[in-house]
Amino acid sequence: MIEMQDVTKKYPNGIMAANGLNILINQGEFVFVVGPSGAGKTTFIKMIYREEKPTTGKIIVNGVNLSSLKNREIPHLRRNVGVVFQDFKLLPTLTVFENVAFALEVIEHHPKDIKKRVMEVLALVGLKHKVRMLPSELSGGEQQRVSIARSIVNKPKVVIADEPTGNLDPETSWEIMSLLDEINTQGTTVIMATHNREIVNTMKHRVIAIENGRVVRDEQQGEYGYES
Q1: Are residues 130 and 142 in contact, defined by beta-carbon separation less than 8 angstroms?
Q2: Cys-Cys crosslink for 43: which of 17, 124, 163, 181, Cβ 3.0 to 4.6 Å?
Q3: How many domains does the chain have?
Q4: Is 207 in contact with 32 (CB distance < 8 Å)?
Q5: C-alpha to C-alpha distance for 5 and 15, rounded to whole angstroms
Q6: Closest alpha carbon to 209 in 2, 16, 40
Q7: 186/194 Cα distance (integer angstroms)
Q8: Is 63 contained in some domain?
Q9: Span 90-115, mean pLDDT?
Q10: What per-residue confidence (pLDDT) applies to 124?
């Protein structure tokens, strides 16, 4: 599903955020990406959905070579890659329904199909009863559920989550992880950058550890491996 071949990313300020990455992630895997602050985790995540472009090397996502992808083709890529952010990134003036529907409206789905699909994913995340509410009327956990619903409404092959529990209390964090696990069991590849030791150590998924832009550890059923 995702392959990186000798990938480097050097920013204009000289920081080498990725340094010779060679990684293969198969369809249906759940992968935690861990490492100290500034290690290169966010750059790693951003390169998968072409928010950042590698300096050298090749990245292939769902058969598409991102290195040669034209800017006009990026929206099509992102139909197959859902993204969940730490700060939710919901549109504040749109309702729960409208935030999730927006992803389908921009690719001109039929309104009847949009309504059906949006209600399906809102049922999955447990928010069918809050379709008319604005983000400001929701708790942090509910906002993150809307963000997840939006990320999967297009039925993407991959969901990328960058610190999705970073702003949430422990109980709500576990609710979000249960939801991501359920999405994964349905066949969606999930890649999640996190600093949450308890979540990583409890769930026992694959762990890729990055330090100074390099992969220093890649373990099936791995552990967090850093001090909290």
Answers
A1: yes
A2: 17
A3: 1
A4: yes
A5: 20
A6: 40
A7: 22
A8: yes
A9: 90
A10: 93
Q: Please name the amino acid found at residue 156.
A: P
Tokens for 141? 């956990």
182's tokens = 């359920």
How would you write 47-58 as a 3-class SS string? HHCCCCCCCEEE
Q: What's the domain range around 11?
A: 1-77+191-223
pLDDT in tens, 114-125: 999 999 999 999
Which tokens sit at 158? 């991959």
Residue whose C-alpha is closest to residue 182's, from 174, 170, 171:
174
Any idea what the CATH number is for the domain that residue 37 is in? Answer: 3.40.50.300
Structure tokens at 180: 């991501």
pLDDT in tens, 202-225: 999 999 999 999 999 999 999 998
- Evaluate whether residue 48 is within a structural domain: yes
* 96 within a domain of the structure (yes/no): no
Domain presence at residue 163: no
Q: 171: which residues sit within 8 A by CB, 6+ positions away?
A: none
- Tracing tokens 């702003």 back to the chain, one arrives at 167
